[in-house]
Amino acid sequence: MAAAKNVILIDGSYLEGGGQILRNATALSCLLSQPIRVNNIRAGRSTPGLRPQHLSGIELVRDLCGGKLEGGKVSSTEISFTPGQIQGGNFLADTHTAGSICLLMQVSVPCLLFSPGPAQLTLKGGTNAEFAPQIDYTTMVFGPIAERMGVKYTCDIKRRGYYPKGGGEVRITTSPVAVVSPIDLMHRGQITKVTGRSWVAGSLPVKLAHQAGKAATALIKREFPDVPVDIEAVQEPRHAAFGNGNGIVIMAETSTGCRLGGSALGKRGVQADEVGRKAAQVLVRNLKHGGCVDEYLQDQLILFMALAKGKSSVRGGPITLHTKTAIFIAETLTKAKFTVTPEGDPETGTSIIECEGIGMENTHG
């Protein structure tokens, strides 16, 4: 019988100091059968400790591996997690708030890649939430790039949900992999097109979606006049959305298969055209540095790069605090080594992130 592993202590207030540390640490703990203790959880936030969406994420990982969680309650500033064996099957996570469904995916999907069989997740909360990727970003940008690493899952949006009520539901079906493949995203090529989805839900009029889409298109065309832009205006069907909301997600595709995104959500008192311009500004900023990934995909790839069998190389924009945090957690728990090489101006230039992954294998295969 293998000796029990020592518990690794992680300071939850380090670097970005938010929910990301908790998600990445819990996922890697589960994958590596490595017990962890995380203290000072969200210590610098206005409401320190676990929020409902963080708790539902780590409870989901506990459930899918039959692990043991201590300190698992809202406002807790310390948890201990002892993982068990990852299983396939059906699992449910419900934030009971507008907490992000996409963040529930971030903590659970990597684990289920190494399960003995297929799994289905029913995730409830916000599909298009603040301070998190919108579900459309996840399907348009993250999913196709992750698939190049062998990460395969289906995403069925049953109902969309928004701040403050949530009420969204997404079903994720995962298939196990033998290994995660390394990724090479070093050459962006030419921008071939920009597509997008400008949406409204509930009682909001569809003209808001048209206004946001037109404003985004105008800004992008000003910067990239030769690139075709096609942003669809969508009124979400009543049965497929809970509550009122509006927002926009746009994506640029390149000749080498890169995908970079920009997004924004509407808020009370913010004009629709301003929502469109904000999303376009994010996209343009990420296109101007010349890298292959945007600032949001940059940190989401780190965990997969650490697990991959082989060397991954990614050219992105300036290294974000989220990416530094993800690298710190990955190096602490997996012993994979990352190198970051800035190119040009550290504020606006590109950075190359390289990692020789640990080559984790699915022992159930």
Brief description of this entry?
This protein has 365 residues and is an alpha/beta fold. The chain contains 9 helices and 17 strands.
Features:
single chain, 365 residues, alpha/beta, 5-stranded mixed sheet, 4-stranded mixed sheet, 28% strand
What does this structure look like?
The chain is of the alpha/beta class. The protein is 31% helix and 28% strand. Helix 1 (19-32) links the parallel strand 1 and strand 2. The two termini are 21 Å apart.
Explain the layout of strands and helices.
Blueprint: E1 8-11, H1 19-32, E2 36-39, H2 52-65, E3 68-70, E4 79-82, E5 89-94, H3 101-112, E6 119-125, H4 135-147, E7 153-161, E8 168-174, E9 184-185, E10 191-201, H5 207-223, E11 229-235, E12 241-242, E13 245-254, E14 259-265, H6 272-288, H7 295-300, H8 302-307, E15 311-316, H9 321-334, E16 337-343, E17 350-356
Parallel strand pairs: 1-2, 5-6, 7-12, 9-15, 10-11
Antiparallel strand pairs: 2-4, 3-4, 6-8, 7-8, 10-13, 13-14, 15-17, 16-17
Helix pairs in contact: 1-2, 1-3, 1-9, 2-3, 5-6
Number of helical segments?
9
Mean pLDDT: 96
Span between N and C termini? 21 Å
* Coarse structural class: alpha/beta
Strand arrangement across the biggest beta sheet:
5-6-8-7-12
Please count the beta strands (DSSP E, at least 2 residues each): 17
Low-pLDDT residue intervals, each spanning 5 or more residues: none
Summarize the helix and strand pattern as letters.
EHEHEEEHEHEEEEHEEEEHHHEHEE
Helix content: 25-40%
State Rg. 20 Å
Q: Quick one: biggest sheet? A: 5 strands, mixed
Overall 3D shape: globular
Percent in strands: 25-35%
